[in-house]
Amino acid sequence: MKILSITYNPYNNNNNNSKTLRSFFDGIPSKDLAMLYMESFSEVDYNFCDNYYRVTDQDVLRSVVKLQFKTRNTHPKEKLQKVSEEKIVALTRSKRTALRRLVREFFWNFNTWDTKEFDEWIQEQKPDIIFTLLGANIFMHNIVLKISKRYNIPFVAYYTDDYVLNCSDKTFWGRIHFKLTNKVYRKTMSKTSKSYVIGELMQKDYSKAFNREFGLLGNCIDLDKFNSLLPPQINTSDKITISFIGGLHLNRWQTVCDLGEIVKEINREKHWNIEINVYALELKDDIVQRLKACGVDYKGGLNSQGVFETIKTSDILLHVESFDEVNRTFVKYSVSTKITEYLASKRCIMAYGPHEVASIALIKDNDFGCVLTDLDSREDKKQKIITAIETYNDKDYSKQWDYVQQYYNKDVVREMLLKDMQAVVDNHFLNSNI
Fold first, then answer.
1. Which residue stretches of 271-377 are H helix?
2. How much is the pTM?
3. CA–CA separation, 240 vs 236, rounded Å?
4. Cβ atoms within 10 A of the Cβ of 373, count?
């Protein structure tokens, strides 16, 4: 079975979606994998898969502006022109408001990727099935649908964030984009052979909204290196380390700042030494300074090994979500990739965010740590943190390991997914020969 992945990001070990995809197809010979991707600036793992085709926003915009209306495969090592096209790169990387997204869709609608070169590449790959990770990029849906129909290839779709049940952008252009996204989602779901979502809440609500079955695919990881980790013992007379690992976009940094102020109060009142360390990429200087003012230490980004080493030396692992209305709606069904690694560490997880968000509810409902939500007063939050630390050594966090083994074990999830995909291929072959 040869698998064609159509996603925004290529296979690598840095991007969360890329790492998730790698975990699904780890162990499959590279000759049996192919990928069409659109991201311009990520590293690419050439060993994992050596059959790539890339068409980026810059390629599409450039071809239309120059009235060529054809793009070519710019993978793997082509450098963007630096002088005349700097504005193109800046435009495509700028903040994506709803209007900018619609303009972007306009350019992709020229189908400049649909060339003789691409046709030859697909014919050479001869994929049996398409696996696609879809979101709010309407053009991605259209590309998948067009390739599937033209080449008679079945596809399965994976959804990790919600863009269709809750409209987070209430502006005029936001509502238009939301309506168009809903339309293409329903078309995609009517054509897909199998659909998956990232969490139980999303599975429940999507099944009800779209009247179809959705499989569950979590952010699975390789558990081998976590197997030997033991829960730490803490002493309130020593330093207690809380670590946040991940992205502080979507205003998550504001929640960390608020927690920093609460922890500063606890340190003063209890004479403890609790420190909060943040490991995140590309924070603006003003955000770093605001974190520092709240007693939070910014440590920069981490590679995959750095993530593991930081988890190993941490007492409490922090997950946060923003409380503003736009972002809490956007992340309602999201389950952070880092949650899986946090659970596998057998450490206390401190979750701070809106009570209705799936990642926060996961920690609360399973009693995996200390959960602070908008339903708690400031004094309640302080007391919850104090209680979590004072009772830390009495808690049994090994049950988190059992949960991960059941739902996020890479080998188990991969076996299930590949079995489903093979069944789709077999059924498609039978139906095509009737």
1. 285-293, 304-312, 325-330, 337-344, 358-365
2. 0.85
3. 7
4. 20
- CA atoms of 398 and 417, how far apart (whole Å): 27
DSSP state of 79: P
Are 324 and 189 within 8 A, CB to CB?
no
Following DSSP, what letter does each residue of 191-245 receive, concatenated?
H-SEEEESSHHHHHHHHHHHTS--EE----B--GGGTT-------TTSEEEEEEE
Q: What is the CA radius of gyration of the chain?
A: 23
Cα–Cα separations (whole angstroms), residue 288 to 173, 264, 282, 317: 32, 17, 10, 20
State the Cα angle at 326 between 320 and 331, rounded to 5°: 45
Give the domains, in start order, of the chain with CATH numbers.
3-220+409-432 (3.40.50.2000), 224-402 (3.40.50.2000)
Return the amino acid letter for 366: N
Walking along the chain (434 residues) 10 residues at a time, the average pLDDT comes out as 95 79 91 93 84 93 86 64 41 70 95 94 97 96 98 97 89 95 96 95 95 91 86 94 94 97 97 97 93 97 90 97 91 88 94 96 93 96 97 87 88 93 94 76
